[in-house]
Amino acid sequence: VLRKKKMFAPTFVLTDQRSLCPPAELPRRREPRRASCRGGGGPPRLVPCAVAKGTRGPGASPRVMYPAPPNARWSVAESASLYNLDGWGAPYFAASEAFDGHIVVRPMGDSDCAYMEPEIDLFTIASAVRERLGSSSPILLRFPDVACCQAAKLQSVFDEAARTWGYSAGFRGVFPVKCCHDKQVLLSLVAVGAKHGFGLEVGSKAELLLALAVMRRASTAQSSGAHDSVRDREHPTPLLVCNGYKDDDYIRLAVGSSSLGISAVIVLEKPSELLAVIAAVRTMPAGGIRPNLGVRVRLGTTHGGRWGATSGDDAKFGLGAREVLWAMRTLAEENMLDCLRLLHFHIGSQVSNIATIKEAMRESSQMYAELVRLGAPMGFIDVGGGLGVDYNGTRGWGGHISTNYDMQNYANDVVATLQDTCTRTGVAPPVIVSESGRAIVSPAAVLVFDVISTEPRGARGLTGAKVGTRVSVKEELGQSTYPSEAQSLPDNKPTIDELRVMAPSAFLLHNFRAVLRNMGNDGTAANIQESLNDAAQFRHEADRLFKLGIMGLEGRAEAEELFSSVRGTAFELARRAPEAESPSVEA
Q1: Mean pLDDT of the chain
Q2: Residues 6 or more apart in contact with residue 339 via CB below 8 angstroms
C-alpha cells in the first residue's frame, strides 16, 4: 500500500495485511529467495537506493580517498564493502547483483517465511513514485514489517536471557511514540506484539491521544477477529506508559483511560505531578479504578554520549532519593501506596558503551529493592531507552554513533543484574519494561533524495594519485613565495645539517611526509592508529603556524593534503586488515 502524506517529504508506507502475522508463527519457505522488479543497467542516481557502480559512484562516501585505476572494473561487492553495507544494513538491506548494484530491502529480515514478499528494489520504487507524483522531491519510505521484526527480536533476546539466567518474570516492550508518529507503524507494532503485551509510551498530551486511539483500535480489531478467545485471554495486557510533562487535562485523560480497558501507568517525574494525581483521584466516582503509578528516579550514573547531559544529577526529569521518600510517605497518607507499581529510569539515548548500562542497572535494581522494602507493591521496572544502534557498523569503533554491544548482550546484562539483586535481597523479580524505540524503528525508514553534485574533501580532488603516494603541492599551486617552505618540497632525504637549519614549517612538513611514507611498512592496527595520532598533531601544529604567519598558504595546503592522504591510507589498510585488528579511526 502506497500512502501519500502531506509533509515536506512525501511518505509512503509499504506494508501488507500479512505483516500482522508474527514472523515466528509463519512457516518456513522452501524455495530460495528470488528477486523481483529487475531494474535497468545504468548506475542509479539515488544514493540511498543503490550502491553505485563505476570507478566513482554518486554520493561518494568520505571513505573514498582516491579513485580506482581507469581500467579496473568496480564490482557490486566492492561497493558493498566500501559502504560497509553488511555492517549497518544486515539483515534488512543488501546490494543486489541481479539489479546491477541496486539496494534491495528484505522486510522480514533473514527469516525465510512462506508468505514473505520478494526483495524490494528501492531504486525501482523510488522511480515509480516520482513518476507518479511528477516531482523529484525527497521521498520517505517506511517499512512497518522491519519495525515489527525488530520488536520481535527484542522480545526474543530478553526471553533467551531469562532462560539463560533463570529469570522467572517476563518482559514487556513499549514503543515510544515520539520515535515515530506514523499510525500504520504504531498499529502494526501493537497488533503484531499483542501476543507478548507490546504497548506504547507517550511523552505529551498529543501523543497520549494518539496512543489511546491506536491501542483502542488494535484491541477492537483483535476482539472482532477470528482468534481463540481462551488463548487471547492468556496474553499479557499491553502497557501505556505515561511520561513527560503532565497538566491537569493530561492526568485526567490518563486516569480515565482505564474505562477503555487500557492499562496506563502514570510515571511521576516531578513532585508537583503527585499532588495533581492525588487531586484527580479524589474527584473519581465511588468504585472507580484507581490508576497505576510509577516513579522515575534520577540515577547518579552518567554517560559521555551525545545526549549524556540528560543523565546524572543534572537531569531535568526524575526524583532524587529524598523526593522518592517524600512521595512514598505522601502516597501512604492518602492510602494510595498500593498504586505504586513501577520504577522507571532513563540513562540517556544512544548509549554506546555497555558498561554504562551495567552501572545503571546496578543502581536501579538496588533502588527497586529498597522501594519494595519500604512497603510498595511494585512489580515492574522500566529500564527506559538507551539501547543504541550501530549506525556505521563498526561495532564500537565509530564513537557515539556506534555501540560495543548487540541486542542480546544488552538483554543479558539487564536480566543478569536484576537476577543478582533479587537473589541477594530476596525480592520477587519484576517484569522488565523497555522503551527501546530507536533500536526498533531506525531500520524501518529510508529517505530517498537526489545527489546534486559530489566533491572530494580537502586536497584529494586535485589529482588522481593512488593511495599512499604524495602529489606535490608545488606542481599544483606553483612555487611557494615562502622560501622556508620551498625547501621542504624536494623528496630527497635531508642531511642532519640541513635538518638543523630547516625552518619550523619545513621541518614539520618533512616529518608529516615521513608519517605517510612509513604507513605502508607496517599495516597493523597499532601502526595505523599511531600514524593517525601523529597526523592529527601535525595538522594542528600546521594550523597554528599558519595563524602566526610562519607558514604560507602553500604549506598549509600541503599539510591538508598530507592529512587527507594519511586518513585515506588508514582507511584502506584498515579495510584490508583482519576484523579483529581494525583500529578506531577517529582522526
Answers
A1: 79
A2: 290, 291, 292, 293, 331
327 φ, ψ (degrees, to nearest 5): -65, -40
What separation in angstroms does the CA of 512 have from each of 21, 69, 545, 553, 559? Answer: 60, 26, 14, 16, 8
Degrees (nearest 5) of the Cα angle 189, 4, 130?
A: 120
3-state secondary structure 263-283: EEEEEECCHHHHHHHHHHHHC
User: First vs last Cα of the chain: how many Å apart?
Assistant: 45
Cell of 76: 557490486
Q: At what angle do helices 354-373 and 407-425 cross, to 10 degrees?
A: 30
| Residue 103, phi then psi, degrees to nearest 5 | -75, 130
Exposed/middle/buried for residue 235 (C-beta within 10 Å: 0-12, 13-18, 19+) = middle
Give Cβ neighbours of residue 68 (< 8 Å, ≥ 6 apart).
55, 74
Per-residue cell: 164: 539463560
Task: Quote the CA–CA distance of 190 and 62 in Å, as a whole number.
Answer: 39
Supply 563's cell numbers. Answer: 592529512
CA gap 80, 68 in Å, rounded = 15
Determine contact, residues 157/171, Cβ cutoff 8 Å: no
pLDDT digits (tens, 9 = 90+) for 131-184: 998 888 899 999 999 999 999 999 999 999 999 999 999 999 999 999 999 999
Distance CA 356, CA 352 (A): 8
Report cis status (omega within 30 of 0) of the bond before 291.
no
User: Nearest 5°: CA angle at 257, between 254 and 258?
Assistant: 120
Cα–Cα dist 3/23, whole Å:
24
Residue 465: all three cell numbers together: 594519485
d(CA 114, CA 107): 13
What lies within 8 Å, CB to CB, of 415 at 6+ separation is 158, 161, 162, 164, 165, 167, 432
Q: Is 500 exposed, middle or buried (0-12, 13-18, 19+ CB in 10 A)?
A: exposed
Q: How do residues 440-475 score in pLDDT, each as one tens digit? A: 999 999 999 888 887 766 545 444 444 444 444 444
What would the grid cell of residue 138 be? 525527497
